Automatic annotation (TrEMBL):
Record region (Disordered): 97-118, 333-352
Myosin tail domain ranges (all copies): 2-563
Pfam families documented for this protein: Myosin_tail_1 (PF01576)
Gene: jg27344
Keywords for this protein: Coiled coil, Cytoplasm, Motor protein, Muscle protein, Myosin, Thick filament
Main subcellular location of this protein, as a coarse class: cytoplasm
SUPFAM superfamilies (UniProt xref): Myosin rod fragments
UniProt superkingdom: Eukaryota
InterPro entries: Myosin_tail
Family label: Belongs to the paramyosin family.
Protein name, per record: Jg27344 protein
Subcellular location: Cytoplasm, Myofibril
Length: 572
């Protein structure tokens, strides 16, 4: 009896110890419940973060649509600029053809004028020679007349010189006949000279009229061309201003996207931190569960010893029945704890599923960001092509300015030629005036008439020279105006080049920002990979935890099966 009493006391002591173990298990269960509540709160925070990511995704999609619309508008503008460039090239080609045709006509007119000037110089030399011959004949005539007078006066006093007088008379008659012939020749030469001068005057008037028409047409064409260039430059300035505004808007949108990307990175970092905390708590819960399993194993071994003692006492101590009932209640509590652990396992499965879904969302977000970056790179390529088109236009405008400069040089050369022609005509005028002065001393009426005619022609030539001088001054004034406009165009082109350089710098900055975005996306991808690794690790820990749960369940089931025969024996 003493031995049985001692055994009963030992059994009670073990039962008390098992009750303490059950209380400790209850405390661990409550602690696990608190941990599960904390995990639920973290899941709620993760859901809120996912909602924010969804909103940012929608916002980025809207911005992408806006960017596509802007891209289409830019493409339409590029096509319009290409059309304008083609029209401008066509106008330049037509102007170049007209300039070449005018240059050919001007060269032909200059050759004709040089030929006529050569002919005029030849006729002038012939006129000088004829005047010299006239003077020589006049002197001979005066000499013969004086000799004849002397002979007539001396005829009455000296009959012996009749033969000499007759001889002198015949010589004088022959000289007079020769003089008449020479006078007729001179008159013919003068008539030819007058006709040639008349023809030269008509040709000069025709050339002057043609030159005036050509000059007026060329000035009108040049003015029209300058107006067209100024208009196109203004259009290019307005288009460049619009492109600068669009670039500023794109830069603002890029900064906004960078800020959103930074926010997403911060949210991702926070989610990773929360996930790490959840993994730590899961590890802690797994350790606590292992400790509970160990304690349950010890309790199970104690229970087996108590059952053995009860069997040896042959159901003589009714206290063992109470202990058995208590063990049954503890088993029920352990069953409830197992079910609660299974519920917690299901919750953790849901959490892992949500984490996997979040990882998928992050991957999708990364893909969308990569697509966004690709679209931005395409926009940058498009902007660079637009910049190249603008540079081509600037080069073409520079070529046009060079062409206008060459034409201006040609006009200056033509002006210099006209100046030299004026000097030649003035020199010829002076020579003609000198010849007229010499012819005035001749004393012949016919010669005086010719001289008068020549004076009139010289006066006409002087008037023509004055008119040409006025035209030359007007042309020089137009050339100065053209030089001024060319300088203004050069300044505008320099300004456009500076804008193009600034645009290139902005493109380089955008490229650097895109590279930074790529690096950020790569870092985000690395974070996603690390999160996947953590997820797999948590999955393995969860599997270990499930295995532990299953082991505990099997042990509880075995313990229950072992206790059932004892309960049935006690009832008997």
């Amino acid at each position: 009896v003493t031995a049985l009493t001692q055994q009963v006391a030992d059994a009670k002591k073990k039962a008390e110890e098992e009750a303490e173990v059950a209380a400790a298990l209850e405390e661990q269960r409550k602690k696990l419940s608190k941990d599960m509540e904390s995990l639920h709160r973290q899941l709620d925070e993760l859901k809120q973060a996912n909602d924010k990511l969804d909103k940012s995704k929608k916002k980025i999609q809207e911005e992408l649509e806006d960017t596509n619309i802007e891209l289409k508008a830019q493409q339409a503008k590029v096509q319009e600029l290409e059309k304008k460039q083609k029209n401008f090239d066509k106008v330049v080609a037509e102007e170049r053809a007209v300039a070449e045709r005018n240059a050919g006509e001007r060269d032909a007119a200059e050759r004709d004028a040089r030929d006529k000037e050569t002919r005029l110089l030849s006729l002038t030399r012939e006129l000088d020679s004829a005047a010299e011959r006239i003077e020589e004949l006049e002197r001979s005539k005066r000499l013969l007349q004086s000799e004849l007078d002397e002979l007539v006066n001396s005829q009455g006093t000296a009959d012996k010189s009749v033969h000499e007088l007759e001889k002198a008379k015949r010589a004088l008659e022959s000289q007079l006949a020769e003089l008449k012939a020479q006078n007729e020749e001179i008159e013919d030469d003068l008539q030819l000279t007058e006709d040639a001068k008349l023809r030269l005057e008509v040709n000069m008037q025709a050339m002057r009229a043609q030159f005036e028409r050509d000059l007026q047409a060329k000035e009108e064409a040049g003015e029209e061309k300058r107006r067209g260039i100024v208009k196109q430059l203004r259009e290019l300035e307005s288009e460049l201003e619009e492109e600068r505004k669009q670039r500023a808007a794109a830069v603002a949108a890029r900064k906004k996207l960078e800020a959103e990307l930074k926010d997403n990175e911060q949210a991702l970092h926070l989610n990773n931190k929360l996930k790490e905390d959840a993994i730590k708590q899961a590890k802690k819960a797994a350790a606590q569960l292992k400790e509970a399993v160990r304690e349950a194993e010890e309790a199970r071994s104690g229970k087996e010893e108590a059952v053995a003692l009860a069997r040896e006492a042959e159901r003589r101590v009714k206290a063992l029945e109470a202990e058995a009932l208590q063990h049954a209640e503890e088993l029920a509590a352990a069953e409830r704890a197992r079910r609660h652990a299974e519920a917690e396992r299901d919750d953790r499965d849901d959490e892992l599923t949500a984490a996997a879904a979040k990882g998928t969302l992050l991957i999708d977000e990364k893909k969308r960001l990569e697509a966004r970056i690709a679209a931005l790179e395409e926009d940058l390529d498009e902007e660079q092509s637009n910049n190249e088109i603008i540079n081509d236009r600037l080069r073409k405008s520079q070529n046009q300015i060079d062409q206008l400069t060459m034409e201006l040089g040609t006009e200056k050369a033509a002006t210099q030629k006209l100046e030299s022609s004026k000097l030649v005509l003035e020199r010829q005028n002076k020579e003609l005036k000198a010849k007229l002065t010499e012819l005035e001393t001749a004393g012949r009426a016919k010669t005086k008439g010719v001289i008068t005619s020549l004076e009139l022609k010289v006066s006409n030539l002087e008037e023509q020279l004055e008119a040409e001088s006025r035209e030359r001054l007007a042309q020089q004034k137009a050339s100065r105006k053209l030089d001024k406009k060319m300088k203004e165009l050069a300044l505008q082109l320099d300004e456009e080049r500076r804008h193009a350089d600034q645009y290139k710098e902005q493109i380089e900055k955008m490229n650097a920002r895109v590279k930074a975005l790529k690096r950020a996306v790569d870092e985000a991808e690395e974070e996603v990979q690390r999160e996947k690794v953590g997820k797999r690790k948590a999955q393995r820990e969860l599997e270990d935890l499930l295995e532990t749960h299953e082991t505990l369940a099997r042990e509880c089931s075995n313990l229950r099966n072992k206790l059932r025969p004892t309960m049935s024996d006690d009832s008997e």
